[in-house]
Amino acid sequence: MTTQGDVRADGDEFNAAVGRQLRGEIAAAGSSIAGMARDIGIARSALDNYVTGKRAIPVPIVYAVSAVLGIAPHHVITRAEERLRAEGEHLAPVTPLTLRADVPTRRHDGSEVAFDSPVPHDDDTDDLYP
After folding, report:
1. pLDDT at residue number 84
2. Distance separating alpha carbons of residues 94 and 85, to the nearest angstrom
3. Of 58, 88, 83, 84, which Cα lies nearest the Cα of 73?
4. What is the pTM of this model?
5. C-beta of residue 63 within 8 angstroms of C-beta of residue 77
6. C-alpha span between 13 and 33 (Å, rounded)
7. In terms of Cα–Cα distance, which of 97, 73, 62, 77 is closest to 17?
8. What is the DSSP string of 38-54?
9. CA distance linking residue 8 with residue 83, whole number of Å
10. Is 91 a residue whose pLDDT tops 70?
């Protein structure tokens, strides 16, 4: 028997999946959360709360984001369902990385210099590049 708490948890999981899908669709379109928020006329923090699952996503927001992206809202929902199902079934295997013998340590923090220049940074100017 499904309890009210189970339904609420399932709804929260689905909301989070829709948020992740919206975030993915926004990124795939080459936009950002801040840019999309401007495009649909809401605060960046509000859209961020929706796509991170912190707040329930209103249907008009799903519709507005979808319209800006040029996709049908039901495609976002369908993709979110597929995403949620795949995450629940762990369809994407995680392959642990193994250390290679030719790499001395896990991390290399040495600084890298593209080229050495006799000109100090303070004297460098942008007028060299038209």
Report:
1. 82
2. 17
3. 58
4. 0.62
5. no
6. 21
7. 77
8. HHHTS-HHHHHHHHTTS
9. 19
10. no
